[in-house]
Structures are given as C-alpha cells and as structure tokens.
Design brief:
binds zinc ion
C-alpha cells in the first residue's frame, strides 16, 4: 500500500491546477494521478466510514504530517475547549458531509479499527493536516481510500465558533476542511469561497456550493436528496463584517509529498 498525503498545502493547488476536474469551485484530490474515494458497497447503500478520536499515542507508518498522533487532552486544556464540545464539533463536521452526499460516518466502536483516526500531532507543525492512504493495487478507476488521518497542532490555539480572531481557528471549520481531504477533495484553485479553500477564514461555517458539488461528484447525491445547495450560511454563524474579509495565513506550509513505504 502506498501512502500519500493531502495536507493543508497551498502549493498543491497551483501544481495541479490544470486538473480537468478543477471547476474552480471544487477539486477532486489526485494522488499520483489517481482519484481516490471511500469505496461504496454494491447494495446501493452509502458507504459508512468509521472514525475515532485516538485514546493513546499511535504511530502510522508512512504517514507524513500525522505520523504520530495522540489524545486531544493537551490541546483542549490549553484552548479551554471541553471534550464534549470538541466531540460535538467533530460530529457536526461529519454531519455536514453526510448531508451533502451519499456517504455516512459513524464513530468506531471501542477496540475496533477506524477508517479515519483523529488526534493531536505529537510533532507539532502547521495548523492541521490530513493524510490519505489508498490501495494502489486496486483495478478500479477511482482507487479506494484505505485509511485517513486527521491531526491538529496542539500548540496552536483553537476555539468553537467565529469571533474574528484569526489567530485561533474554529474547530468545526477545521474538521470540516480536513474531513473534506479525508474523503477525496483537494483545495479548489481559486482558494477561497469554499470550506475546501486553502485559507482559514471566518465568513461561513457551512459547506458551500463547490464543497457540496465536490462531495456529490465523488459519492453521488445523498439518498434522501432534500438538501439543496445553500444560499447562505445559517443565521448566527457569520463572522462580524469588520473581520470577515481578513484572511489568516495559509493553513499549512509543506509541499505535496508522496512516499512509498
Ligand atoms: Zn487543506
């Protein structure tokens, strides 16, 4: 199995901007030229992807930015975020993608392997990253994702909600963005106006039209397709106008890397 990394890397956008699937609103992640996604069962049901917040330090051979991840305890303590709040924000982030396309997420039962493991970086850098592993031997035209990791830098300061202070990132926004990578989306070339954009900003806290189109391109419409593309963010989630147009620096600094363990 080959390991590839989809970090929060602005460089990736420019490097792959010629991708035909880059509509400007969304971009399908390509790893070594392959699209990837969680493989759906053959019974027409949505793929159920399991996730888990790690409960002890774990090491993932071949991963890049999330090679060693651990519990969120230190991150939560330093940022005054409760475990219940963090779990709630993570669940809300998964729920957004679940509402957008035919893919479902469930917390993995105790003692079982999860498809997506989530935790704090042991070797802190950047802000947040996702590592995506896929099955290179698969004959499928879109290769199956076999595992994904999401990690946050515990030395940064995190929060719940927007307040215009771009030196602290909102957990929900961050989780939504990283989960987007973990299901096969890249940063759209425009870089803004979507949660999958490469900049952290506080203008909207829900998936945008391009984010949703990207998820549908990979997984199809949700089975109960009642969701229309949002006209605007839900009330109460908008940042203050005075801060709305300021952008934080890019989320990550590393270039795209590929490794073959
Ligand atoms: Zn990113």
């Amino acid at each position: 199995m080959r390991t590839l990394v989809a970090g929060l890397v602005g460089l990736l956008c420019s490097a792959l901007s010629a991708n035909a699937q880059d509509t400007g609103l969304f971009k399908i992640l390509k790893l070594e030229g392959h699209q990837v996604r969680w493989q759906a069962p053959h019974n027409g049901e949505p793929r159920v992807v399991t996730y888990r917040i790690v409960t002890e330090q774990e090491e993932f051979a071949g991963a890049r930015n999330c090679r060693k991840i651990t519990r969120f305890d230190g991150l939560m303590a330093d940022s005054n975020v409760t475990p219940a709040a963090l779990r709630s924000e993570l669940a809300a982030a998964f729920a957004m993608w679940e509402a957008a396309a035919s893919i479902s997420f469930r917390e993995a039962p105790e003692g079982t392997q999860a498809d997506i493991s989530i935790g704090a970086q042991v070797e802190a850098e950047g802000w947040a990253f996702a590592d995506v592993f896929y099955d290179t031997a698969s004959p499928l035209p879109i290769k199956p994702i076999s595992k994904a990791l999401v990690c946050l830098n515990p030395l940064r300061r995190w929060k719940v909600g927007f307040d215009g202070d771009l030196s602290r990132y909102d957990l929900r926004y961050t989780f939504v963005h990283e989960i987007g990578h973990a299901i096969g989306l890249d940063h759209p070339a425009g870089g803004g106006d979507q949660i999958m954009g490469y900049r952290y900003e506080e203008r909207f806290r829900a998936l945008q039209a391009g984010d949703i189109r990207g998820a549908i391109a990979l997984y199809g419409k949700p089975r109960q397709a009642t969701l229309n593309e949002p006209q605007s963010s839900p009330a109460g989630t908008q940042a203050q106008p005075s801060s709305a147009r300021r952008f934080a620096k890019r989320w990550g600094t590393r270039g795209f890397t590929a490794r073959s363990p």
